[in-house]
Amino acid sequence: MDRLQAMRIFARVAELGGFARAADALALSRPRVSEAVAGLERSLGARLLHRTTRHIALSDDGRAFYERVARILADVDEAEAAVARGRSLPRGRLRVDMPMALARLVVIPALPRLLERHPGIQLELLMENRAIRLITEGVDCAISYGQPLDSDLVARQIGTTHLVTCASPEYLAANPTPRTPESLDAHNAVAFLALATARPATWEFERAGVRRIHRPVGNLAFNSMEACIDAAQAGLGVTQVLSSLAHRAIVSGRLLPILSDWATPGPSLYIVYPVNRQQSARIRAFVEFAIRVFAEADAGWKNIAAIDAKASARRRPMVLGGSRRRKTPKHVRRI
Predict the structure, then answer these.
(1) What b/e readout covers 131-141, taking b as 16+ CB neighbours within 10 angstroms?
(2) CA-based nearest residue to 158, from 273, 28, 45, 314
């Protein structure tokens, strides 16, 4: 039996959890299935399966071998489809890594569109708030914030972002609304821990060519922007996150944008993959999908800016007789 066929048999045994089920699925005899797996183990010099009278389980070597075999078989299936049909159709397993907040708030809600258009793709979405090693961890591609540093990978920009500073209506009712970046010093910050450094990311502002960098100070910090949004909605402070992630909370009124006239673009979004995966139809299909989804998500920035402009207009002091009438702080007694 050739090695590729033996790999297919082993993969089905691993996926179905038994020799009999794999034999039925592949229309083979059980002894032939058992011998194929045993032959692989002999050639590799390693035990791939732990066998008992009632069930089987992958060994550590078997699990690692299965991860690689599954990718090889998916590539072979894709190549055969390309020859048979004259073009490559996206099919097979695709493992994609991305930050959890991007996945939950932007990508997952749009997945029906991807899978309806490409039903042959078997997507595995890994939500990791850390840098990963694509090849050694068996990942096909990954989405990251900012230009990747690994020159051994292909990096393609797939989207832009904007940064929005926001807080809950309850928090802003109890605390003066910041008018300038400097006024944030008087507020509790809900900081995002940068993935590269695990330290609070600085907040960026710019208006009319004037740039300000604010170092957030507060009693809360998270390595997930989604958690920052949740904490801000709970009234725990002011946060700065990607506008695409906070869009729903802002449109629904659970968060209010502030300092939008000082807002700056955020980090660009990149997808990275090994050089030898450039021609993968699965990756091409996912890249096209991601470009559309992130363009739509960042377009929501216009809605956020409009919401803040209306709120700012309502917050302006009334003008009486050509002069501004200013509110007296509650703790100051008017004489």
Answers:
(1) eeebeeebbbb
(2) 273
Question: Which pairs from 63-69 meet CB under 8 Å and 24+ separation?
Answer: 65/10, 66/10, 66/11, 66/14, 67/138, 68/138, 69/7, 69/10, 69/11
Structure tokens at 138: 């068996």
Using the structure block, give the residue that is written with the tokens 């909370």: 249
Class of domain 163-267+300-315: alpha beta
pLDDT, one tens digit per residue, over 156-191 is 898 888 899 999 999 999 999 999 999 999 999 999
| Burial (CB count <10 Å: 0-12, 13-18, 19+), residue 279 | exposed
Is the model's pLDDT at 321 over the cut of 50? no
| Phi, psi (rounded to 5 degrees) for 303 | -65, -40
Under a CB-based contact definition with an 8 Å cutoff, are residues 131 and 123 in contact?
A: no
Domain ranges in the chain are 3-84, 98-154+273-292, 163-267+300-315
Unique residue bearing structure tokens 């003008």? 319
**3-class state of residue 269 by DSSP:** strand
**Which CATH architecture describes the domain 3-84?**
Orthogonal Bundle (1.10)
pLDDT one-digit tens code per residue, 105-122: 889 999 999 999 999 999
